[in-house]
Input
Amino acid sequence: MSRKRTGTGTRKRKGLGPRASAVIPWGVPSARSSVMVRCSWTRGGEFESPPALTSPGTLEASGTTPQSVHRMRLGKTADDVVVAGGGLVGMAVALEAARRGLRVRVLDRSTPGAGATQAAAGMLSPLSESSDGGPFLSAGLASLRLYPGWIDALRAVSEVDPRYRRDGKLRVACAPPALRGLAGLARRAREFGLSAAPIDGEDLARLAGTRVAPPSGALLLAEDHQVDNRCLHRAVSEGARRTGVAVTPDAEVVAVVVERGRAIGVRLAGGDLLRAGAVVLAAGAWTGGIPGIPFPLPVRPVRGQMLALDARDSLPARVIESEDVYLVPRWDGRLLVGATVEEVGFDSGCTAEAGTLLRDAAIRLLPGLATAPVLDHWHGFRPGTPDAHPIIGTAPGVEGLYMATGHFRNGILLAPWTAEALGRLLAGGDGPEIPEAFLPDRFQRSPEDGRRSHAPNGG
Ligand SMILES: Cc1cc2nc3c(=O)[nH]c(=O)nc-3n(C[C@H](O)[C@H](O)[C@H](O)COP(=O)(O)OP(=O)(O)OC[C@H]3O[C@@H](n4cnc5c(N)ncnc54)[C@H](O)[C@@H]3O)c2cc1C
Output
């Protein structure tokens, strides 16, 4: 399959070919389910535990029918696409491929959504996450533009509210040295036609909705949005299920099976071979460790820890970010405080030191948080790459093998863009063309291609 290598414009191309002739329109839930799914974490003003993600082993609940399990045991499953990894990226790709008429199965080695997806802050901030105007910024902005339509469609098909908010972000410089960064951000925003309005003290208090420690400078980035990533994952999963995607939790892919240069399926931990027309690897930070990928895939885990505070008494009206910390207000009165960036491999767990660091930084920025109780402290592994760009597209030298991984700090932002890009490759039709800088073969071309001096910031 020939591919064009540059640009992020929308193109049509041939893929596996949809099973159905037409793309399933968004917002038409299948008659299979009329269950209203809620993403509500509070009741009567009190906090509840986060909603249980699909519990391990409940195949019916996760959309896998007994019949498909039977087929799987017989080793006769003939899906068009199997997706390894049921995080936001894998699930969004699965939904898009199913919407384009393909028969899709998602395999997750544990509970779908319990990886980096549940750990994120859900900020959709392409500008503040890119220190240059390269392909990352183009894709990030394109994905941000896809968000409103994607959210509407997800709400309609899933009946889950992903809690998408467009109230912008206040970016403040607490110490004078950070003013230079703020000026650079404002300049880049202007270059890309985005608004970055300087904010003075009085306006800052009004826009923040709470007292902010006097900063050296502040900007309102109106185009920065946020979504509740856990609710979003529930919406995408439910939407996928209603569009016919089979989801199998506790199904670890232990190898990609390649025959005569073509991926013919995946091997599961129990030894079964699951055949499929195409294999998509979307296993987040774990993708590079899946055996059978015949080329270097340098995805590494980058641990991030976050806190949730009960900030119902001093909840800011929008996201506030300083040079030390970001604060993300949620609809239920929680305030997310993030995040650490730690190169510790897959060392699981949270540290008291990080908890103190995050809480202290939050209080320095919003003094009213001094009495806010800590509700939760968690960590996740971002899928990092040497150049901080995602790895999206056709695998070099193996027909039928696709990658959707390495989204590092921006997988929530880039999910709809990635889904459309992969949807186009898999099934044909419209979708963004994947820039060369994201293609999986870049690490083979030259080591320098896989390295950049300016890594995107962000979640
Ligand atoms: C603290 C923190 C804050 C963040 N904040 C933001 C933010 O504000 N905005 C933003 O855009 N991004 C943010 N991110 C990044 C974002 O969370 C990730 O980029 C995104 O979730 C990656 O999604 P994924 O589906 O690729 O990976 P994951 O969500 O990690 O999903 C991978 C899935 O693959 C499964 N899996 C692994 N191995 C196998 C296997 N062998 N077989 C089958 N399944 C397997 C796992 O069980 C998991 O469910 C943040 C991340 C962290 C940690």
Observations:
- The longest strand covers residues 300-310.
- The CA atoms of residues 5 and 436 lie 5 Å apart.
